[in-house]
Design goal:
This protein has helices spanning 19-34, 46-54, 64-74, 142-145; strands at residues 5-10, 39-44, 58-61, 78-82, 99-104, 116-119, 131-133. It is α/β, with parallel strands linked by helices. The protein has a seven-stranded parallel sheet, with helices on both faces. Helix 2 links the parallel strand 2 and strand 3. The longest helix is centred in the first third of the chain and has 16 residues, at 19-34. The chain starts with a strand and ends in a 29-residue tail after the last helix.
Length: 174
């Protein structure tokens, strides 16, 4: 079989956290298991590079000109986009024939450039023919997807509210 190429455009840093990186790593690991000859290259921010390297994928610091050149030159088969913004950089523009899959977390229908859109929010209506929504499309790492079902109490005793994001003040200790 032909060696296939996947480019991943995902960001992670102290402002937005590493959720986009972790979700895309989960997807890439599953794809690599199914397609052993898949060559995965990430284009990301500096804080995320070490995490990607630890997962044994190629990684490059995102620069629009570098990625544009490599999309045209290497002609990837797939591009996965997992960014905070919906309409952003050239990775979502039609520079080649690659199938573009975009992961989003949105409660509001808006224009998104991609061939396939996967939204973890259960928003049923979206102006796109290849749109999939809901928790069944949320890729979970193995350590979370294999947990046994949790028994719920009939009465609420504690509530945790998590707003996501990162450590903007740099107070997190390693």
């Amino acid at each position: 079989p032909k060696k296939m190429k996947l480019f991943v455009r995902a960001d992670g840093n102290g402002e937005i956290g590493m959720g986009h990186i972790m979700r895309s790593l989960t997807v890439c690991a599953a794809l690599k298991e199914s397609i052993p000859k898949l060559e995965v290259t990430y284009y990301t921010t500096a804080p995320a590079m070490e995490i990607v390297k630890k997962n044994k994928f190629w990684v490059k610091l995102f620069q629009e000109s570098t990625m544009q050149h490599e999309i045209i030159d290497k002609n990837p088969d797939f591009i996965i986009l997992d960014l905070r913004k919906h309409l952003d950089d050239l990775s979502s523009k039609p520079l080649n024939r690659a199938l573009k899959v975009r992961f989003i977390d949105s409660e509001i229908a808006r224009e998104v450039r991609a061939d396939i859109i996967i939204n973890s929010f259960p928003l049923p209506q979206w102006p796109h023919p290849n749109y999939y929504s809901g928790l069944q499309y949320l890729p979970l790492r193995q350590e979370f997807s294999q947990l046994p079902p949790k028994q719920l109490r009939k009465e609420v005793k504690k509530i945790t509210i998590a707003l996501g994001g990162g450590d903007q003040l740099g107070e997190e200790k390693p």
